[in-house]
Amino acid sequence: MVLVVFLLAYLLRRKLDAANAWCAEPLWRSAFNRVGAGRSGNEASLWKGLVIILVPSLMLAAGEYYLHTVGWRMAAYPLEFLLMVLLMGAPGWRARLEVYSQSWARGDMQSALHHVMDSLPAEERGAATSPDEMHLALSRTLMVNVFERFFLVAFWYAVGGIAAAFFVRGIIALRDHWPQVAARPGFARLAEILNWLPSRLLSFTFGVAGDLAGWMKEGKRRLFDFSLRTNQLLMGAASAALTGYALDPERFSKIHPDEWADFGGRSLEAIRDLLNRSMLVWICILALLVIAGVR
């Protein structure tokens, strides 16, 4: 039943994303702003934010265990479905990427940057000083965003149930929206710990879903590099798994200078296709686990 819940939630979430509907980020932000005010001098503390996420996670785990004990486990699945729909999702990206690709095709790099600037992390905005760097920054942000809002939630839902999925997604939300900015680096470190195993599983999946030979040359050595952050790992693995220099704008411009106007759109399409194929691989793996009786 875990597979059915996830599949239904994933399909509905994709439709909602296409319609730019049901964005959960304002809900997280509003909830944290109401209860996240801290005392002066204690802005870097993580405990209050962790408790806010941990308490409902434990309640979900206890409720799931109770329903399983009394034989009413099926009663929890509608709630899990609704929560998964809210926990997953990256609405708004499609429209931004379409406008970005159109601006790139016209050669209007300033307009392209303008349309995606708000989507880039603060540390990436200053680095986007050239079309190449701008596109690489956008590609990193897109991959991490999709990873954390789909693959990460799916992994922990399959491993630990809805309580684990809620907790992990809550940590990501704390990193992005906790009102005490000084505490966000601490939440970011926790997020990197929770990302470690699923990000490496996705990195391996890139090889399976993409150019395995290219991934074996460059991508596999990154799997156990503890110094790599999630965005660096996924970017390197995707670059190795994609053909046609989809994530190497410098080499593409030298080899195919006449096709440079199409690079932005083609690169983003290649990334989306790789992520979609990777999700299909994960769904197949989950189906095999269900058939084997593991889940």
From TrEMBL:
<keyword id="KW-0812">Transmembrane</keyword>
<feature type="transmembrane region" description="Helical">
    <location>
        <begin position="150"/>
        <end position="172"/>
    </location>
</feature>
<keyword id="KW-1133">Transmembrane helix</keyword>
<dbReference type="GO" id="GO:0046677">
    <property type="term" value="P:response to antibiotic"/>
</dbReference>
<protein>
    <submittedName>
        <fullName>Membrane protein required for beta-lactamase induction</fullName>
    </submittedName>
</protein>
<dbReference type="GO" id="GO:0005886">
    <property type="term" value="C:plasma membrane"/>
</dbReference>
<keyword id="KW-0472">Membrane</keyword>
<dbReference type="InterPro" id="IPR052966">
    <property type="entry name" value="Beta-lactamase_Reg"/>
</dbReference>
<feature type="transmembrane region" description="Helical">
    <location>
        <begin position="274"/>
        <end position="294"/>
    </location>
</feature>
